[in-house]
Amino acid sequence: MIMTVFAGFAGGLAGTLWAGSVSAALLARRPELSAAGWRPDTAWRVLHTAVVYGLCGAAAGLLFWLSWGLVAFTNWPWFVVGASYGLLLWFAAAFPALLLLSLRLPTLRAAGVVMAIETLAAAVSVGLLCAFVWHRAA
Predict the structure, then answer these.
(1) How far is CA 95 from each of CA 26, 75, 123, rounded to the nearest angstrom?
(2) Has this prediction a pTM greater than 0.85?
(3) Which of 4, 10, 42, 87 is spaced 20 to 30 Å from 129 by Cα?
(4) Sign of CA dihedral 13, 14, 19, 25
(5) What is the pLDDT of residues 79-111, one digit of tens each?
């Protein structure tokens, strides 16, 4: 169980890496976001992002362990199981929230797309790392 939770935490930190390297550069190019109050990342904001992504990844790792590693996918390779779990996480949690936010606040539509891609990268990396650890332990 501990290794699956740590794998989820590490996958969440991959979301922080994506946020700092890809999302920050894409969001900085959007002038309408600056007008709406968007500010570039500071060291504290990056630390908070890492904590949030890490804790959410650890919770997703625990959920993967509680689901017995998606036992319904026993005949599939570990990376298919991991990608499926990551997509399920993303569709269940991040996608609806970001889609509804983008629909209700048109000025944030570009930010919603960037954040949706960022959370997709984090969710899939959590799923892949959890499935890899589960497969290695089996």
Answers:
(1) 19, 28, 11
(2) no
(3) 42
(4) positive
(5) 999 899 999 999 998 998 888 888 888 877 888
Kindly report each contact of residues 41-50 with a partner whose C-beta sits within 8 Å and lies 24 or more positions away, as own/partner: 46/16, 46/19, 46/20, 49/16, 49/19, 49/20, 50/13, 50/16
> Which amino acid, residue 76?
W
Rounded to the nearest 5°, which phi and psi values hold at 134?
Answer: -65, -45
What DSSP assignment string belongs to 10-40? Answer: HHHHHHHHHIIIIIHHHHHT-HHHHHTT---
Q: Would you list the domain boundaries of the chain?
A: 2-137
Token pair 């890492």 is found at: 50
Q: Are 61 and 4 in contact (CB under 8 A)?
A: yes
- Token pair for residue 14? 């991959």
- C-alpha 127/C-alpha 121 separation (Å) is 10
